[in-house]
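Why predict the complex rather than its parts? Because the way molecules touch one another can change local conformation, and only a joint prediction can capture that. The input here totals 637 residues.
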Amino acid sequence: MLAAGVDRDIRRHGAETFPHECCGALIGDSASGRVAAAIALPNTTEEGPRRRFLVRPSDYRFAEQRASELGGELLGFYHSHPDHPAQPSQFDLDHAWPTFAYVIVSVMSGAAEAMTVWYLEDDRSTFEEGRLDVDENSDSHAAAAVHG
Amino acid sequence: MSTKILIPTPLRPYTDKQDAVEADGATVGEVLANLTTRHAGLKGHLYNEQGRLRSFVNVYINDEDIRYLQKEQTPVKAGDTLSIIPSVAGGAPVVEKGYDPISSELPSLTNDEVKRYSRHLIMPEVGVDGQRKLKAAKVLCIGAGGLGSPVALYLAAAGVGTLGIVDFDVVDFSNLHRQILHGTTDVGRSKLASAKDKLTAINPEVKIVLHEVALSSQNALTLFAPYDVIVDGTDNFPTRYLVNDACVLLGKPNAYGSIFRFEGQASVFATKDGPCYRCLYPEPPPPGLVPSCAEGGVLGVLPGMVGMIQATEAIKLILGVGEPLIGRFLIYDALRMRFRELKLRKDPDCPVCGTHPTVTTLIDYEQFCGIHPAAPEPTPVADNATEITAVELKRRLDRGDNLKIVDVREPNEYQINRIEGSVLIPLGDVPKRYNELDPQDEIVVQCKVGGRSAKAADFLRSVGFKNVLNLKGGILDWIDKVDPTQPKY
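Output of the joint prediction:
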């Protein structure tokens, strides 16, 4: 479950950085799985931001610190796939961490389209797709978990 | 000695939800080994199959990355704290696809197709979805010759749904040693008719689209537009540049291959971020410098090898698997049985795929490659002074005229057929051997069809020979008009 503002922020970030990939951290409540905030992070990849993103250890630390400041937890990360479907790549799988939610937004010709969420299987063999709902009523605290 | 290790959020499920745990060890490596013994679930996420720390796993001792210390041999002192800090990385598939089919839009497989492609379906890299992608894919093969034959045969067998072929040639005996789409009984038939029979026999599920035209700047964009991947099996430079430019302009990947004698080349050009043929060769070679297969010959099995590489790349592009041959130029040497690979970079100054392209529409590729349309027929007077026909030569020889016939072909060509009484001086040897000839003699130079001998004639005249005639149409015309008992090649 994404707060409505989070959904908008991720889509806007993806459209802004197009044709490059954007990335950021997802912060929220681990019990409900509700993402309350998306923190945009710099894409520091050296392999070309059109096809890759990299969050540095220092930015990762920043994200964890920001999560505890907000009274939440780091739930995962988002990134965009410019001109590609919102399906995880082998590269995503190779670099994935367990339990994190990986939100992917497909940005086609500059416009954010499909958004999906993925979780790494414990044996690292594949991703399992989760359900991604947007909480239109941001005041609601009856949000359902994204974990499937 | 026990060391404190800070555990990042995603790994806490493996440490009973604790954000810090302790483990013993004198070095970072030992501490981590003990950590993963105690909390076994961590191992697969920290280490790869070779037992090395994964590249996106960062280990800090206090505030320093162990990569800049002594890595896993870094000693651990009392009071040190280790932190495991993720790098989070990912990205879109690097593989460039001609299209991005949405899974639900892909055609389904019939029971017969499931049987036919079962060895594909059980491979994780292909599977049912991959086979459906192949079925949805449209591949255009430029040429049904040496390269086009294996490409079309295997792509049809593999289940590429729509296979287009461009060719306007007729099957000739000299094609058969390598163009395995065509058989002896096909000689004289159109290559497309012959190709359609073979491909349908192999796989009737495939839609074969025949384009019996000469590819040109006028029709290339329209022809290419419906296809996902273009496979270049052409044998000449103007068409090669035309295919490249059309692929770049349309944003379609070009599975490129070329062959000569014992050497083959292959690459994938014109993908979105990859180089194109012009990044490698901005300008064509001068006309005549690089001989074609018809002039220089080609090992019969060579196009099989190179065509297979093109077909493999086309299938990988469609499936979106593996590492495509983008930015890499593969050179295959059949004599030494070696593959070499050159790295290619996209040239920002490339006239067609660079940042400021100057070629934005298809041009006249014959002119670009320095090949001019056939000149108007020279006047008969000039003809008589420099050329002689096969019939006239025969008449004069029969009359007893003292003509010296110089064959400027290569020795292996001379072995196949020759004009009785001719002497062999290969074109390349003429400059150092012309003094074997008498400048006062009347000399007739001759090759296969008249091109090389025209050069030899020009050379001989330039060094003072007064009476040099070029045999029009070469030995082929001689055999057609005078001596049909000899074989042609």
